[in-house]
Structures are given as structure tokens and as C-alpha cells.
Specification:
443 residues, alpha/beta, Aspartate Aminotransferase, domain 1, 2 domains, 4-stranded mixed sheet, globular, aminotransferase, transaminase activity, pyridoxal phosphate, Aminotransferase class III, transferase
Length: 443
């Protein structure tokens, strides 16, 4: 089946509720940082499949382990009859998490069900009914995780009323107006307004935060924000939860985004790249937060031997092949190159990131910062035509998301920047077919 036929059939048989499309492509194979379509065209991938393929595609070590595991034990429901892979993986996750307190691990299939775990178990464990999260956050698509989320993608649904959402400290678009005291503004707003009116701290079980807001636009908060947020939670004995689904597992140049600030969360949520392409998620948390009852949040295939093996080997690859160090080094290089590109095009309002979690925000002009959503879609579409896979995100749909496999090289970064440069040139000369672009809604 050729690509055009496949896409036509797919359009007829696959639910639109399951789609975010930026251009017409289907994938036949992938290896390393490259995707190959049905016609044999190769693309450099800056998406890693929404940050899932952290160690790249088709890693031979993972393939070998999966084959052996399937032949020896293809499945057991760990809920009732456990085996060693899930237990060993849990031990390893506990080992790499900070904190001298006793921890346990919960396993699921995706970031959504893992954040649902937090949504359900924390109020139960703390005997406090309320939760706090941030506007712009994206925690998942199940009802509990979307209740925690503050992203337009979930705004059509009415989530649970026990979640209070507060502004995230976006340095490029400060929620309270231009300021040099963004962190203190947000912290004071939570403490002096939210806690004193609609969300009493003594009734608040937890606060969940992304160290870098991912689908919200790769927003990097001020360096003092996360440490001050932890102090706030400690003052009121509120559990601090980090959603590391997208930026964890080495992407920022350390294991987790909070590691840049020597913080100790009460719970950490993992997903996406944890399984090297296989569906597995986890919550690593204080023992008392997860031991709230027997069988209160479980899925038959959670922590199955295949996915657990993939995650365990994935962690070994990250360590042994020094991919976290590569993310730090090459991420800094990527940011430098994008900063140079920013000097050439007025549409690039902001370049930000940490490690290989990078956002490029497009605006109509730098004075008003009016979001340039259509131009962002056009640049991503043109990059696809030129052989580069890149998506856009953000609450205004105007941030190019750069989350490549952590194996990306400087040579590949140079190629990616040259393609982005050409796409901006083509946008400048009005040579991008906007009618084609408009066929694909993206977010």
C-alpha cells in the first residue's frame, strides 16, 4: 500500500479524536534519528515521536532483550503474579530518585494514567480534598489527568472541581505583566490570594508542576521558581509532585528537570521515553502516598515483563552510553545555533530550553508578541517538505517544539538548523503553499 492510499484509508477508518496532523506522512521504518516513509524518503526527526524515542529508534540492545523476554515470558499480570523485571525496574527507579525517605513505585501505560494515579491517590492518602496545578500544563487525556491540566486541548471537557489552577511563571509572557520579580509574584499570588480564599492549604493534598511546561510551549520558568515552590509546599505540608513525563529521563541534561536545582519531590510522574518506545509509565513517590489501599488504581497489563524489560534496558543505555551528558552538551549547542537563527528573522520572538527540550516561539512582531500560529504551521510544513520532522505546541500554537532523540549529533543539529533557516527564507519570500498548510490543523 503506497503512502497516498494508506493515508486515504486511514482517514476513513481511524477516529479523528486520535489525531494531531501537521503534514501528510506515514512511516514505514525508523532507525536512530531517522524516519523513512513508504516511498523511501528519509527524514531527520526532531520530535522523537513526542519525546518517546529518547534513545532513538530501533536500538539493537532493546530489540535483543525484547526478543529474549518474549520467548521466555511474554506476559504475566503483575497485579497478581509478579516477576523480576518489574521489581528490578522499580528498584532502579527508586535508586535514581532523590530523597532518603522510603519510596515505592506504581506502574501504568502512559503519562495520563500515571497522573490519574496522582489525582486519585494523593487526596486519599493525605485526607485533603484539593489539588493545585498550573495554567498551560498538560498532564494527560483521562478524566483525572485532564482535570489537573490547564491546556486548551482539554478545555472542552469539564474536569473535577477539586483542582485549582494558577498562573505559570512564563518569562516571555509574564502573567501579571512585565516584571523582574516573576517568581515572587506567582508565589505570593498562591500564598496570599489562592490559599486565603478558594483553596485552603490545610485542605490541599498536593501541587503538581512541570519543571518545563512542555505542550504549554516549552516554557522554562525562572531559576528561582522551583526552589521557592518547594519551600511553599513545605511551609504548608503540601505534597510536591513533578510531572516528568516529557522532559524526564535525561532530556534536560540531567535525569530530571528538578535535578538542576537539587530538589526532592514527594512524587515523580514518568512516561513517554521511559519504555524506549513501549507503553509504560510510573509514579515514584513516598511510600505512604502510594500505599493507600489494595487494588485502588490498577490495570491488568501494568508493568508487564516486556515493557518493564524495555524500560530497564533503556535506563542502562542512558547511563552506559552517556546520553544524558550528550543531551546537555548538544542541547547547549542547539540553543546557540537557534539563537543565531533568531538574529536573522524577526518572527522568532524567543528561543528557550534546557538540554534537548527546546522551544522556538514565533510572533508577528517582537513588540506586541502577537502569536504567529499560521506562520508556525507553515514553517513546520515546509520543514517536512525539506526532510525535517518537527511539530508545534503551545497554548497559542506558535512554538516549534524541538525534542529529538538524545543520540542526535552536532552534524545533525547543523543540518536541522540549515533546514529551519531555509523554511524561514521560504516563508519570507511567500513561497510556501499555504493552502496545503491549512489542510492540517495541528493543535
Amino acid at each position: 500500500m503506497n503512502q497516498d492510499t494508506l493515508l486515504s484509508v486511514e482517514d476513513k477508518v481511524i477516529s479523528n479524536a486520535l489525531k494531531i496532523r501537521f503534514y501528510p506522512i506515514s512511516v514505514a521504518s525508523a532507525f536512530g534519528t531517522r524516519l523513512m516513509d513508504a516511498a523511501g524518503v528519509s527524514y531527520l526527526d526532531l520530535s522523537a515521536g513526542w519525546a518517546v524515542a529518547g534513545i532513538g529508534y530501533g536500538n539493537p540492545r532493546i530489540a535483543h532483550q525484547l526478543k529474549q523476554q518474549y520467548e521466555s515470558l511474554s506476559f504475566t499480570s503483575q497485579l497478581t503474579i509478579p516477576e523480576k523485571n518489574m521489581v528490578g525496574l522499580a528498584q532502579k527507579l527508586i535508586e535514581i530518585m532523590p530523597g532518603s525517605f522510603e519510596k515505592k513505585v506504581w506502574f501504568g501505560h502512559s503519562g495520563s494514567d500515571a497522573n490519574d494515579c496522582v489525582f486519585k491517590l494523593l487526596p486519599l492518602a493525605r485526607n485533603r480534598s484539593r489539588m493545585v496545578s498550573f495554567m498551560g500544563s498538560y498532564h494527560g487525556q483521562t478524566m483525572g489527568s485532564l482535570s489537573l491540566s490547564g491546556h486548551p486541548a482539554q478545555a472542552k471537557f469539564i474536569g473535577s472541581g477539586n483542582v485549582l489552577k494558577v498562573p505559570y511563571p512564563n518569562p516571555y509572557r509574564p502573567p501579571f505583566g512585565e516584571t523582574t520579580a516573576l517568581t515572587s509574584q506567582v508565589i505570593q499570588y498562591i500564598e496570599n490570594e489562592v490559599f486565603r480564599t478558594v483553596c485552603p492549604p490545610e485542605d490541599t493534598a498536593g501541587l503538581i508542576v512541570e519543571g518545563i511546561q512542555s505542550d504549554g510551549g516549552l516554557v522554562v520558568p525562572p531559576d528561582d521558581f522551583l526552589p521557592e515552590l518547594q519551600k511553599l509546599c513545605q511551609r504548608y505540608q503540601i505534597s510536591l509532585i513533578f510531572d516528568e513525563v516529557k522532559v524526564g529521563m535525561g532530556r534536560t541534561g540531567k535525569w530530571f528537570s528538578f535535578d538542576h536545582f537539587d530538589l526532592t519531590p514527594d512524587a515523580v510522574v514518568l512516561g513517554k521515553s521511559l519504555g524506549a518506545g513501549l507503553p509504560i509509565s510510573a509514579v515514584v513517590a513516598r511510600k505512604e502516598l502510594l500505599d493507600t489501599g489494595s487494588g485502588v488504581h490498577m490495570f491488568t497489563a501494568s508493568g508487564n515483563p516486556i515493557c518493564s524489560m524495555a524500560a530497564w534496558e533503556n535506563i542502562a543505555i542512558l547511563e552506559e552510553e552517556r546520553l544524558i551528558e550528550n543531551a546537555a552538551e548538544n542541547g547547549a549547542y542547539f540553543l546557540q545555533m537557534l539563537g543565531e537563527l533568531q538574529q536573522k528573522y524577526e518572527w522568532i520572538g524567543d528561543v528557550r530550553g534546557r538540554g534537548l527540550a527546546i522551544g522556538v516561539e514565533l510572533v508577528e512582531n517582537r513588540s506586541t508578541k502577537a502569536p504567529a500560529a499560521e506562520k508556525t504551521a507553515a514553517v513546520c510544513y515546509r520543514c517536512f517538505e525539506l526532510g525535517l520532522i518537527v511539530f508545534y505546541v503551545g497554548i497559542h500554537s506558535n512554538v516549534i517544539e524541538i525534542t529529538p532523540p538524545l543520540t542526535i549529533s552536532k552534524q545533525e543539529i547543523d543540518l536541522a538548523v540549515s533546514i529551519l533557516d531555509q523554511a524561514f527564507k521560504d516563508l519570507e519570500s511567500n513561497s510556501i503553499d499555504m493552502e496545503k498548510v491549512k489542510q492540517y490543523a495541528g493543535w
